[in-house]
Design a protein that fits this description.
single chain, alpha/beta, six-stranded mixed β-sheet, four-stranded mixed β-sheet, 20 helices
Length: 626
């Protein structure tokens, strides 16, 4: 096999990484970045003192020069100001570097907490939960203590959207294979992943610091991008925007040398004041839409540059990089231009600069026009750049989980042939602490279409269904899975596990469950893509006889189609279907052992029908007489 030097290193690290080494890596990096930040803090303190003493000494020196050496005093003042500005710039640069080191330390601290199964500090993207989704609610994909919160390392709304999309819909096999290769590429690029996250942390920090009308900057910028231009659409206003400042400059020079009377610049000034008043509402919209977000855009510039300059190996990542280059110019370069224009437009916070530059030279209108020109040439491209960033964030989120869990495997995606196949060894629930997680095996292959699972209360049936479902969703997103080995075909997951009633829609839980089962059955009949269904205690809202007849009829219908799945039930009579549909339906169970009145669950799935029930024992354990 032909390996580059990077691939040798990546392969060696992957083979030697364990849960303990991952924790040591994060701990070492956290301490290293904190030490760097502390060192920079000491330097900043010294530079801060230097700045104070230099200013006081320089101010006295300039005063002394004006008193005794007026011929060179202005030169001394100029040198003093230049050097002082350089010291201020040096101080600001070190302060930014210190903040970056602290952000990197925080990234590692959060990952250390995640290793201890504390991931509440990540966003579960509850707002991205699709309505009437076939599995999102049942499998806890979004929200608090969800799969998304466990996986999510995105820093921008574009990354959140890409991750939510990946977790809520299956991709085709070629794309899944490309995503797997991209995740493999990103797993060992810990510097890239953490640098990106540390830079991206500024996005939320800037929004919190600025508190801008509770509107997310990306929303405001997107609104500005879609708004029609107000200067370029008017030839007359465009002419005035450029002609009046030029005439004013000529008038001021003419006034200074005595060729033009003061009335001419005064009239021009009054005309410009009128134009500023007439266009104030339009310029304010541009300032509110993009001008005040220069720092936000600068962060995106840094994120784009980080992606552009990383030497990726995976084809998908290279293709995403290519999206950021157009006509030999980089996306980060174009965003840098936008950032500069936005920063120049945002002068309203400086009253003196605003008064002079705007009223004399129509500063805001000039930069509004330049922003309109930028928007005209790059409006269609910027959405593509941000979408590429979102895809990278989604992929490195999966890569971070893979790095944190070196025992997880890359699932084998089988050739698409319209059938459902799924097998796994050492399959565990990703959201259960690894110290407590019990793994199982599953094999839905050959002629088997339905695994019928029975078991007593609390024996692990529902958890097993969610274990299979969540890992299947992760596999269909391109992620690694919580298993020693897993192979499956491309499937669309459907579940019916926790139907909720709705007072607003006057729907009972039972009727809501029926609607969910109907959607699953309709999807099974379409069979494109084939459905993998997980049904837990179907028709539990009716009497036992009615439930048995309905469940039996549903199972018989499901067996007619190529889709496959798992059904958990307390109805032991359904297990007799295994005799009628031999090879297509198999019985499996979770058992409970009772010793001296104490229950013991091993949470291991076994072949056969459950023979132990524990409802009465549970009732007695909490003081209910039976």
């Amino acid at each position: 096999m032909d390996f580059t030097s990077y691939n040798y290193i990546k392969y060696f690290r992957a083979m030697t990484r364990t849960a303990d080494t991952v924790e040591r890596i994060y701990t070492e990096r956290k301490e290293r970045f904190e030490a760097r930040a502390e060192t920079m803090g000491a330097r900043l303190h010294r530079i801060g003192l230097l700045r104070i003493f230099y200013f006081l000494g320089g101010a006295y020196g300039c005063y002394y020069a004006f008193q005794y050496y007026p011929a060179v005093a202005w030169y001394i003042l100029g040198v003093f100001l230049v050097l002082f500005l350089l010291i201020v710039k040096w101080y600001d640069r070190l302060q930014a570097e210190k903040a970056h080191e602290l952000a990197l330390a925080e990234v590692n601290a959060r990952e250390l907490a995640a290793l201890n199964h504390q991931f509440s500090h990540f966003d579960g993207l509850a707002g991205h939960t699709p309505v009437e989704h076939p599995y999102a609610s049942d499998l806890d994909i979004f929200g608090e203590e969800s799969v998304c919160q466990f996986v999510n390392r995105s820093v921008s709304p574009h990354g959140e959207t890409a991750l939510a999309k990946a977790l809520s819909q299956a991709s085709d096999r070629p794309l899944l294979l490309e995503r797997q290769a991209a995740v493999d590429d990103l797993v060992e690029r810990i510097d890239f992943r953490q640098t990106y996250q540390a830079i991206g942390a500024r996005l939320s920090h800037q929004q919190l610091k600025e508190k801008i009308d509770r509107v997310h900057p990306d929303v405001a910028i997107n609104k500005w991008l879609k708004a029609p231009p107000f200067i370029s659409n008017s030839r007359f206003l465009t002419l005035l925007t450029f002609a009046l400042p030029a005439l004013m400059l000529i008038g001021l020079i003419g006034l200074f040398i005595g060729l033009i009377p003061y009335q001419v610049p005064l009239v021009l000034w009054l005309v410009k004041l009128s134009i500023i008043k007439l266009t104030q509402a339009d310029t304010t919209k541009v300032v509110e839409g993009v001008g005040k977000y220069a720092k936000h855009l600068r962060t995106y510039e840094a994120l784009l540059k980080e992606v552009e300059e990383t030497p990726f190996e995976a084809d998908l990542l290279k293709r995403l990089q290519a999206e950021l280059i157009e006509d030999g110019q980089s996306a980060s370069g174009h965003i840098a231009q936008l950032t500069s224009l936005a920063a120049n437009l945002n002068i309203r916070t400086n009253a003196a600069a605003f008064l002079i530059l705007n009223t004399f030279f129509l500063w805001e209108l000039l930069f509004c026009y330049r922003l309109e020109h930028w928007k005209k040439t790059q409006q269609l491209s910027i959405a593509r750049w941000f979408e590429a960033l979102g895809q990278v964030e989604c992929l490195y989120s999966f890569a971070t989980i893979a790095f944190n869990h070196p025992d997880w495997c890359t699932p084998e995606i089988l050739e698409e042939n319209g059938e459902v196949k799924l097998s796994a060894q050492g399959l565990g629930h990703p959201l259960i602490d690894p110290k407590e997680c019990i793994s199982n095996e599953i094999a839905i292959i050959d002629d088997l279409k339905i695994m019928l699972i029975t078991g007593s209360n609390m024996s692990g049936k529902s958890t097993f269904l969610r274990t299979v479902g969540i890992n299947t969703v992760l596999a269909m997103a391109g992620s690694r899975v919580c298993a020693n080995k897993m192979s499956l075909s491309v499937v669309l997951v459907h579940t019916s596990m926790r139907a909720l009633d709705s007072l607003q829609e006057s729907a009972s839980a039972f009727y809501a469950e029926l609607l969910g089962l109907k959607r699953t059955l309709d999807a099974v009949k379409r069979a494109q893509p084939p459905v993998f269904y997980l049904l837990d205690e179907i028709l539990k809202g009716t009497n036992s006889q009615d439930r048995h007849q309905g469940s039996r009829a549903l199972i018989e219908q499901l067996l007619r189609y190529p889709s496959r799945g798992i059904i958990a039930t307390h109805d032991l009579d359904l297990c007799t279907l295994a005799e009628r549909f031999s090879g297509q339906l198999e019985n499996h169970c979770f058992e409970v052992q009772v010793t001296h009145g104490e229950m013991y669950f091993d949470y291991k799935i076994k072949p056969g029908v459950c023979r132990s029930m524990n409802a009465t024992l549970l009732m007695r354990s909490i003081g209910i007489e039976v």
